[in-house]
Structure formats: C-alpha cells, structure tokens
Amino acid sequence: MIEVRWHGRGGQGVVTSSELLARAVLREGKYVQHFPEFGPERRGAPVRAFTRIDDKPIDIHYGIYEPDIVVVIDPVLLSTNVEGILSGLKNGGYLILNTTKVPEGIARIAKEKDLKVYTVDAHKIALEVFNRPLYNTPMLGALVKATGLASLDSVLKALEERFKGEILEKNKIAVKRAYEEVVKYEV
Amino acid sequence: MARIVGMNGDTAVAYAVKQADVDVIAAYPITPQTIIVEKLSEYVNNGELNAAYVPVESEHSALSACVGASLAGARVFTATASQGLALMYEILYIASSLRTTIVMALGNRAFSAPINIHCSHDDAYAVRDAGWIELFAENVQEAYDLTFQAFRIAEDKNVLFPTIVNLDGFILTHSLEGVNVFEDEEIPKFLPPKEPVNPIDPEKPVSYGPLDLFDYYIEHKKQQAEALKASYPHILKVFEEFREFSGRSYKPLKTLSMEDAEVAVIILGSAAGTVRDVVRKLREKGEKVGVVSLTLYRPFPQEELVKVLKGVKAVAVMDRSYSYGSPGAQLFMDVAATLINVRDKPLLFNVIYGLGGRDLKPEHVVQVFEHAKKVAKEGEVPEKEVWIGVRE
C-alpha cells in the first residue's frame, strides 16, 4: 500500500490533485481511496488531502499519518510549515516540491531520513500556461514522473474526466511540462 | 465487463438513486449529505432523471412531502443528516406507521451541541425505535449497492417499511473510492418499477392515520411490530437476489474469524474495515480474535448474532454515540438484550469511540482487543464502559 499526503493552501486545488491521482490510478485497475482533510474551507489556509493506493481492495478507513510520499503544492509552506510537511514521512520516502531551490532545513532532514527529493518549478509552468498560480496539476505530473504511481497517459485521461475544452488542454500541457521538467535533487 | 467509476459516497448514492429511476425527491441540503441532493437536483434539471424534485423549506417538510408522494404510489427518496434528521423526527414515526416506502440516505453526523459536522451515529440511532429498516454501508461500493437494495426492500409487498441507508459522514460521504457500477439497462432486472399497494385514489377517497384511541391503537401497533418482524426473511431474500444480480453478497451480519474466536468486536459502519484489518494482523500472531459488523441494524438480526457469538468469551460492543444516563450505549443495549436469555453467553463491555469524527486508528482497536482479552482471561468486567481515543 502506498500513502500520499498533499499539502497546499485553500484555493490551490490540493483536493483536486489528490482526486485526479485517484482517478488515474483507478484506470490502471488498482484500488484507491482519496479523501480531503475537512475543516473550515478558507482561501489561503493550509489544506491537506490524502490518497491511498493498493493492488488489493482497501478495507481500512482512517487517516494517513505516516505517508510514503509527500507532495507540497504551495512553495510558501516550504518556509512556513516545514514540520507539518515532514511530519510522519517515512524514511526513504518521496518528497515532491514546487521550488527551484530546496531550503537548507529541508535538505538536511531529507539527508537524515534518506528521502528521495524531486523538484519542479510549477510556479513558472503555471504562470506560463494558465497565467495564474495554479500549481496542482503540474505537481501531479511531477509526482507520477518521480514515483511511477501512474502513467502519464492515465493522468491525462483522468484530466478528461474532470475538465473540458480550453481548461482541459491547458491542464494537459501543464501536466506534461512538469512531467518533463521535474528533476531529482541530490541530497 | 465491470465498469469502475471513482465516486465519493454521496455521489455514489445520488447515482444509484438516479439509476433507480425515482419519481419524487424531497430534501433539504445539510452537510455531509449535501452533495447527494445537489447531484440529484442537477440530474433532474439536466433531464437525466425524470422526477419531481421538491425543494422544501425544512427537513420536516421534506419528509412530509415524501410521505404524501409515497402513499400516492411514487418511488420516493430523501437524504439528511444529524440536525436535519432531528427536525424530521415527528414525521419519522408517521412514515413507518403509514407503511410508506421512502428510502432515505443518512450521512451520519453528530448531534449538536457543540456543532460538529463529522461522524457519530447519533442520527442513525435516533431512528432505531421509529419502525424504519436501517442498513449500514461500510464503504462507498456498499453505499451504492445498498441504495438499490433499500428500494427493493422498502417496496416489497411483504415489507412496506421506509428504509434508511446509513453512510458515515465524511469518512464515506466525501471519500472517493472505485465503485463497480451497473449499466442503466441492467437495473430493472433487479429493481423493476414500483408497484404501489393501495395508492391514494381521488376516485376512492380514504383517510390515512385518523384518530385511533384506546379502542384500537394498541392492536394496530402490535400489527406494526409483527409486520416489521415478519419482514426479516424478505430482507434476506432481497440480499440473495442482489447477490444473484451483482455477484456481491450482502448478509445481515458480516463476520471475520468468528469460527473459533475467543474475543470479538461488534461494530457498525466504516470503522468495521479498520477492525477487520487489525483482526487479520492479530490472527497472524495466533490470537483468537474476531469481528462482527451489522449491515442490517433494524430489524436487529438477533438469531444470527446469538449464533456467531457462541463460544466467545468476551465481546467489545463499539458505539459511535452515547446514550446519556442509560445502562449502555445503543448497540450495546441491543446486543445485551439479544443475549440476555442465552446460556453461556460472553461477557460484554461497551466501547465508546469516534464521536464527532475522532479517528479510530488501528492502535485503538488493538487496545480494545487487549481489554477484551483481559476480560476473557479474568472472567469479569471491571469497566463496563470504556472510552477510546480520548485525551485525558
């Protein structure tokens, strides 16, 4: 079983990216759960979402406390919420960041915990593609490239379940670009 | 070829209700079931579902409209949660006593105060005495499947009681899982259109629920009590027909490793799977533990429960609610009353967990089994009521 925790802030599509991952994984015949963290829904407030993936049916229904993979959609959280981001992340797990530069504090802990760290400049991609800071679908592209959790094709098909027209096409471009541009950070 | 669609519990219920081709929906939105009624109003608005959607001003009116529509012969659906159910309370008893066939989805949520939008079973238990049939879903697939079965059960001429599908608020209503869905054209094989029994006919006016005092009221109530008891084998028949239709098996009780269990947990709803997972792990260590969960809560599956608990030494009955001032919470009292005249019954204790959405983690379940093993070993119950996952 693979457990993913997504971090972002309200309005950034954190929950949507977790849901899209779930839909992509379902297309590959795997079993999945996706659930948001529920609290007051305020634009700008820290938000988390969760995806649980397995090859066999998932019987459990409780929170994810020790994720295998953490995806940080919002670059601001890398300086304001380091503890929250790294909380419970398994040794040897994945950390997928929307940044060009891994902050020193995170790099140090990544080394200690033997994390696999990947970065992508989703901010740049989002501004170029959407002309708005929409980081969620590029981060999904980066995640699947880094971890192989789902194929690019499944993610693109999942986008079709959710979006239409110009928005769909732009999201496809954003996902593909992040898929190509994500890089491994040597800890 | 199975078609798997990613849906949350609310969306799955709404999709099932659409496929069940209901005639009338009367509901008032309330978290965490709001998505259900939003989806249904969309289906009606888009012409995907040919039904009357009655946007009422309160839950009391919602259920009242459902009662009228059901008696007029319609296939009827409503959904609510928590305070909304509380506002329906007056009409709950009328809906069952008039033998309506309303199907309700209850997105289980804690009662106020303080205000909480997350899962407790307060609302599910509030209906336990009202003469409705109650089913509990443990995952999103079950929420979808049980919705179809609820219509079949409620409308069965040997049943004719309103039926609730309980699904845990947020844990199921808002979690997306893969759902194996039917194609629309398959549905009538399992769920043909409703055949109303004595529907309201303007040509032949009759009264429903007229004044009925000490001369006949008690006879009518006894008939109602007997009718709900007599519905039991017909509910089982619907489960069996659903298995033939879908290949997915439903029973009043779900059990895991009960054959030789020395200690067991009894539980309702989405946490059952978490308990099963712990049971599998403890079994690997050779511990004789088991778990029972109830898909059918009303009418209560007494005989089956007595059978599966045979030989068990200690049982933790887990309630996601509380009954203030009572000798035990609701499921505990159901189980205690079921076992009261049975010889060689297990020792029972009551575990209170998960109120207002507090997560039930595997380590909590392990604690419950540790407690149960101690009770079994010592042959006595030091604490009849144990609260789990609570900060001191």
Task: Give a nutshell description of this structure.
The complex is a heterodimer of chains A (187) and B (392). Chain A is α/β, with parallel strands linked by helices.
Would you mind describing this structure in some detail?
The complex is a heterodimer of chains A (about 190) and B (about 400). By secondary structure, chain A is of the alpha/beta class. Chain A has one domain (about 1-185): Pyruvate-ferredoxin Oxidoreductase, domain 3 (3-Layer(aba) Sandwich). Chain A is built from eight helices and seven strands. Chain A has helices at about 15-25, 75-80, 80-85, 105-110, 120-130, 135-145, 150-160, 165-180, and strands at about 1-10, 30-35, 45-55, 70, 95-100, 115-120, 185. Chain A has a seven-stranded mixed sheet with strand order 2-3-1-4-5-6-7, with helices on one face. In chain A, strand 5 (about 95-100), helix 4 and strand 6 form a beta-alpha-beta unit. The model of chain A has no long low-confidence stretch (mean pLDDT about 95). With about 400 residues, chain B is an alpha/beta fold. Chain B has two domains: about 5-245, Rossmann fold (3-Layer(aba) Sandwich); about 255-385, Rossmann fold (3-Layer(aba) Sandwich). In chain B, about 40% of the residues lie in helices and about 20% in strands. Chain B has 13 helices and 15 strands. Chain B has helices at about 10-20, 35-45, 60-70, 80-95, 120-125, 140-155, 185-190, 215-230, 230-245, 270-285, 300-310, 330-340, 360-380; strands at about 5-10, 25, 50-55, 75-80, 105-110, 135, 165-170, 175-180, 255, 265, 290-295, 295-300, 315-320, 345-350, 385. A seven-stranded mixed sheet of chain B has the order 3-2-4-5-7-6-12, with helices on both faces. Chain B has a six-stranded mixed sheet with strand order 9-11-10-13-14-15, with helices on both faces. In chain B, helix 2 links the parallel strand 2 (about 25) and strand 3. In chain B, helix 1 (about 10-20) packs parallel to helix 6. The mean pLDDT of chain B is about 95.
